[in-house]
Structures are given as C-alpha cells and as structure tokens.
Amino acid sequence: xxxxxFWPFLLIGLAGFLCIYWFWPSGEKLPVLDRIESFELEDVHxxxxxxxxxxxxLVAFFYTNCPDICPLTMFDFQILQxxxxxxxxxxxxxxxxxxxLDPEHDTxxxxxxxxxxxxxxxxxxxxxRGSTEQTKAVTKEFQMQYRKIEGDFFTHSVTMYLIDxxxxxxxxxxxxxxxxxxxxxxxxxxxxxxxxxx
Length: 198
Description:
Layout: H1 2-23, E1 34-35, E2 40-43, E3 48-50, E4 56-62, H2 69-86, E5 94-100, H3 108-116, E6 125-129, H4 132-141, E7 146-148, E8 154-156, E9 159-163, E10 168-174, H5 184-197
C-alpha cells in the first residue's frame, strides 16, 4: 500500500521540479529589449551629440511648454544627477539625456534657459534638439509617440529609456506625474547593474 502511494507522489514531485527548472525565469537582470540605432543631434551646451559614445544613458523626451509631466520628470532628473555625482558615475560612465519634441519652439537658447532651472551640469546631462525630420527619426527609433495638438502643446508617450553602453535598450520607466515621481531608486539600481556588467 505504501509503495503504491509513494510512486505517484514521486512522479508528480519530479514533474513539478522539471517544470520549475525549465520554465522558471532565468534570473537575468535587465535583458536586452531592443537595439537603438545610433543618432546625432545638436547638444545645446556643446556642439554635436553622438549617441554611440559608450555611455549608459537614461533618455527622456520633453518640450519646454509642457505644463506637467516634463518639468516634474526633469526635477527628478535633477535628483538623479546629484545621486549619480555622489556615486562617481555622472558624466564618467552615465549620462542623463533630454530630447525635445518641439525643435521649432525649443531653440538652443530656449532649452538652455529651461535647463538652467534644473541646475543642469552639462558634463553629464545632455539637452538635445534636432530638425523636425531628425526628431521624427529618433522618436521612431525609440517607438515614442507624439503629436502636436492645439496651441503650443503636444500629447506624447510618457516612457523613459535606459540604454546600455552598446546602445541596447535595457529597461523602460514611467515619467513623473502629480501623484507619482520617477522611480529613482529602481533606476539607480538598474544603472549600477549595467555599470557592473560593463
């Protein structure tokens, strides 16, 4: 009687173990989600920015007339800038990258003035703009949706992108809103993981 009961349980247990072994996530942190083709845009504090520069990047799209999500996100970027400096990563192996969706309004000087409000250090926080055509090409590469609506306002996706030193997309995050700031601790942990992987 005991043996008859034992074998079915053993087989069930073995089958369960094999299922867990084969189908349990591998534990890989920050898997490669996509590859972002390299691009060049105007850096409003310097000259030309080339994305294939071997840096880890947190990328967010914005426009200076944005009334809520963009400035809230940039305030969180300001905090990330300070934290990355404290960890000795800012501008050394990690960059914050802000790309305007509205190059017609957001001239070089307009963006410079906007960036000043967030105490930007251009050594590691890059503010970029391109032509309308370049902007469309870059947003398409990131699968970032945006559209101009009435007045000087845009509707746009609220995704940020973590790019590794090989231009590979490794994580996605939500931009800030009035009820929820950027997930700064998670972003910093993920950045440090990519630094360790380099």
